[in-house]
Protein 1
Amino acid sequence: MRMLGAEAVIECLKAEEVEIVFGYPGGAVLTLYDALFKTNFPHVLTRHEQGAVHAADGYARATGKTGVCFATSGPGGTNLVTGIATAYMDSIPLVAITGQVGVSLIGKDSFQEADICGITTPITKHNYLVKKVQDLPRVIKEAFYIARTGRPGPVVIDISKDVFNDTLDFEYPDSVELRGYKPIFSGDASKIDLVVTELEKAKKPLLFIGGGVNISGTSEELRKFVESTGIPVITSLMGLGCIPCDSAQHLGMVGMHGTYAANMATMECDLLLGVGVRFDDRVTSLVKNFAPKAKIVHFDIDPAEVNKNVRSDFRVIGDLRWSLPLLAEKASMQGLQKWQQETGEWNKLVQEWKKEKPPASELEAAGIKPQAVIEKVSELTKGDAIIVTDVGQHQMWTAQSYTFKKQRSFLTSGGLGTMGYGLPAAIGAQITLPEKTVVLFTGDGSIMMNCQELATMADNGLPVKIIVMNNQVLGMVNQWQRMFYGKRYSHSSTKGCTDFVKLAEAMGVTGLCVTEPEKLDAILEKALKMEGPVLVEVLLPATEDVLPMVPPGGRLDQMVLGGVF
Ligand SMILES: Cc1ncc(C[n+]2csc(CCOP(=O)(O)OP(=O)(O)O)c2C)c(N)n1
């Protein structure tokens, strides 16, 4: 059928079963927006392009599907950059479609021109500049294929304004033929036999799970393996939720703000199975001291991850959807139940470490404890909510104190650490999962970075519950200044003049405030029961630290558990 390029884009999205697009219009995409209007294609107008890309990312993390966003040329495209980099660092499938100036104007510093392909090359899995309308169907087909296969990631399609206005005989390709891109699904099964042999020999094995498990949706396969072997488990920030936090084998998050048990187990284990992890420096601290007594096994879909940060002794390259069921099967065939007895001593030891009482800050002031806020929400939602965070102390307290029970239930910017991610990501999750409780924990610094999206939330009637942990400081920065910069609090106070309740109300969101510990539980309960979007501002002392903490460059067993620094 003959149609406009802009109409063809919409047809391609339908063919890819895209449910919704997040975006913001402008000159270069006016014809595209006109096509959206005519087809009534679902679209959410955010208040900033950064909001659109984070919303598409939140949608992708919560559903496992590919998120899609639109932006215009120039500033529209550059406003996507942080969100694209956020998705890239956490391997999130995303297709960003941007408008570009007319073909004859490209490269001439035209009005609203920016070289989006050039700018996004290091932060995308792939990107395209489309100058011919006939290329559109193939390019879009390829872009979705690349975004969601293999190790997922963001793909940018920059489309010249002329292309939207030109016409073509539309036909969507059935398949993709890409030379040089052959995503791996299944790998070498004999490698798994080697891993099982190592497991049989190990006396102190430890399973380390990461974001790859969440992305591939393989928590069920992993759970079977954990149950049949009784192996203790640690997770990265991105791996939270894949194994219920309250299960006996779960020792908690490892790394800079990891639990005592997880960090000690890493130092002592003799075999570490890393599954869908990338050994980030927030996990390993100094690499030479990471898991010093262990042989390391690395399960990953991306061969480029192998030996990037940590040297592994064995590798299983392939999709976890292939390798984990095979591992579980082979392990149970080898009768690893028997091996459970041999590792009994080890399991007893890790359970002792688990009892180590939660650390306390000596600077702890009277007032509401941040951990109490999160624990109450955890209790009220029974681990069944989608939890979203921004970046800072509140993010780490959430990771430590919420009892996650399900995969894809924790949306947070792990790799890039993007303040401002939370509010739009919560929008993306809630819009696709209207029956779910979506709770955003954010800080007084972070919420300000994309607070305009409160309006998007209200306009779309999204019942997200936002909890602003207001300590009136850029808490994580403040903590580092307290610990490592002689308490010289350089520009880390937000001064506390912003009235978050009024800010919420101004944008159509109900605002509540808690200042006294005795009222905390009742107000949280009320907020969670209320219909529509609610923002609860919780006033917290500024001096509460995130503990334990492994000082930068320290060993995992040198974590600071409490006290004054
Ligand atoms: C876009 C961006 N800018 C700066 C930082 C550096 N940074 C990390 S945590 C933090 C403070 C966060 O403060 P707030 O949102 O109030 O949360 P809190 O730590 O108090 O819980 C800053 C500035 C960042 N992560 N992202």
Note: The first strand starts at residue 2 and ends at 4.
Protein 2
Amino acid sequence: MTLTEIAAVETATYDRTVQAGDGALVRVPAGGRLRIVDLHGNQAADTLLFDAADVRNKYSAFDTIREQGAVFLTTGSRLLSTRLDELAVITDDTVGRHDTIGGACAQESNVIRYGEHTRHQHACRQTFLAYGAAAGIGPRELGHNINFFMNVPVSPDGDLHFDDGLSAPGKHVELTAAREILVLVSNCPQLNNPCNGWDPTPVRLLGWWS
Ligand SMILES: [Zn+2]
């Protein structure tokens, strides 16, 4: 981190390091800024956003992609809900682009992709359910998520695959809440594809709000 960033970190009102395989549920008031820092690089921070007033009004990858006319997320991307409400805007991004198509890992998808021996590996879906429960977020409220720092190139004919990351140690992405939101993060424990550089590592969440 640069000196300016270290100074900014000292003023943060929220500061939490999330280990690989763990998660967090963060309430961010309107106007609050939440930064996710990729501490060691090449991590995947699977993230869902919800309207704090009604968790059924949740982040919609489909509406976000259609309305911004782009499949990747970066600075300026408006993160929309299923009711087309603006939940947050990406106001800073030192990586360049983030995936919102690849989805989160689950025990079922691990088995299909990597084989039966991976069934009992911890997956993001379990972390989402464990941390979401406190806010009434159950299986029905889980939708297509954002994969911050994850590199999922999409070819012109619509193919996509998981690639080694574009991120690097200390890079970050920052969201500014457009209304009071709940941010549900699963710091991905995936060991079977290069989205975490084969080595899941911690991320740091920093928040500025009063
Ligand atoms: Zn995962």
Note: Residues 62 and 144 are 8 Å apart (CA to CA).
Protein 3
Amino acid sequence: MDFLRPQTWADALAAAADRPDVVPVQGGTDVMVEMNFDLHRPTALLDLNPITELTTWEENPDGSLRVGAGMPYVRIIAELGDRLPGIAQAARTVGSPQIRNRGTVGGNLGGASPAGDLHAPLLACGAIVEAESAARGTRMIPADQFYVGVKRHCLEPDELIRAFHVPPATGPQYFSKVGTRNAMVIAVCSFSLALFPAERRVGTGIGSAAPTPRRATAAEEFLAAELDWDGTLDDAVARRFGDLVREAASPIDDVRGTADYRRHALAVMARRTLAWSWRDHRNNGEAA
Ligand SMILES: Cc1cc2nc3c(=O)[nH]c(=O)nc-3n(C[C@H](O)[C@H](O)[C@H](O)COP(=O)(O)OP(=O)(O)OC[C@H]3O[C@@H](n4cnc5c(N)ncnc54)[C@H](O)[C@@H]3O)c2cc1C
């Protein structure tokens, strides 16, 4: 096996172009586990760790945040938790402290597992994935176009994820995950909600309850239209929102849970995250 260790982003793109067989590795918390279990034996690894720009973040001129693909979860929680509360909540549920030290959002995106915890808040917040190739340059991919199948994303073999872009929260954001225990657990299913009160807009993300992470767009449209943004939360609206989120899922029965349980849990998580968000919205109009 070849081990490629480019020192610059340009060299990494050149290596990905030269070797379509290469497997990028950042934290290695997915790649190395698969190799250790002999599930996958790449012919070449592309170690992105020397490229320090991948572990930085900055504010774009339009106020949105550009977060490097290699930012580990612990730093997202510590440095961006106030501006990206939904993403930070999901990051806090990933694995153990060791995994959160090494694991990255870029790696979660690269794996594109329907059960990856970061996908739901990335969808709810309207994140955009910045991908690049030596041949075609930069491509900005909205998160809801990024996932194309079970553990499959829309990247070409020569493309790498450089960063993700996301607006800072302008309202409450929540992430909720059901697992067989409280920590170190793959989601049975997960849900994320983001409210954008100034725009009277709602964002959602469903995890682990369909072949790909997905939004519940009918639920978003219903809630945005039916919420009395300056008044109280109507129980019937919350219930219908939960029902629409449940209907947006297409889960399967597997070792972690049944399809029926996942649908039920999603409706509960949708109503709960809405209640939490509404409490924050009415209390101070700010994200929790
Ligand atoms: C014990 C344990 C517990 C875990 N718990 C959770 C959990 O609770 N929730 C959860 O979501 N995940 C969990 N994971 C899975 C894993 O930690 C996460 O998916 C993590 O985000 C992977 O990030 P990484 O940087 O380690 O990725 P890597 O292992 O380095 O890479 C993962 C995938 O992304 C690709 N990739 C990496 N960087 C790029 C890039 N810049 N461009 C293109 N492709 C790229 C790789 O080729 C690979 O396919 C767990 C793993 C372990 C071992």
Note: Residues 23-31, 33, 48, 69, 93-95, 99, 102-104, 106-108, 110-111, 116-117, 160-161, 184 surround flavin-adenine dinucleotide (CB under 6 Å).
